[in-house]
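explain this chain.
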Amino acid sequence: MTSDQAHPDAVYDRLQHQVALFARRAEQTRLAAVGGLRYTMDRAAYLLLGRLETGGPMGVKALAQAMSIDSSTVTRQVTPLVEQGYVDRVPNPDDGRAVLLRLSEMGRDRLHQVRSARVELMAEMVGDWSADDRERFADLLARFNKAMVRRQEARLAAHPPNTSSAAEPAEPVEPGEPVEPVERRVPGGE
């Protein structure tokens, strides 16, 4: 009998600690990614560009819904992407008063460049693992992310969000998947 079987809480303690370390180290590793800073991208930008690539042009409200985030958050996150030329605002053919957000060719090139660097980084990190271990890790991580989504959905069903709350959803684990809300940082706060 392993220690974890004798004391089931011990494995949960190990897991919570490893997840905390993973989150910190993942960000540190991303910032020191293969190819340096020119191959990194803010997580929110990466997920927004990826959603526009897979979903095609869409309005702010549709993009927010697809990403499970607030429309004002999408607007705030898309603005620098438009300024950098990664996203184009184009007329909505169904409503001349509205605009759609579309991934530009420059945005697509940048997204592919960053994705390629991330894939290269993953290969560097787990390249010496067996193919079975890599596959199992990917499967378990996907399963863990889905468990987080199920938990969030259950919490939202039991306690619908208060629209006057100071919290907003964080970036989804995968495009379109909701995650835990995070506290909005107040300028001058911690």
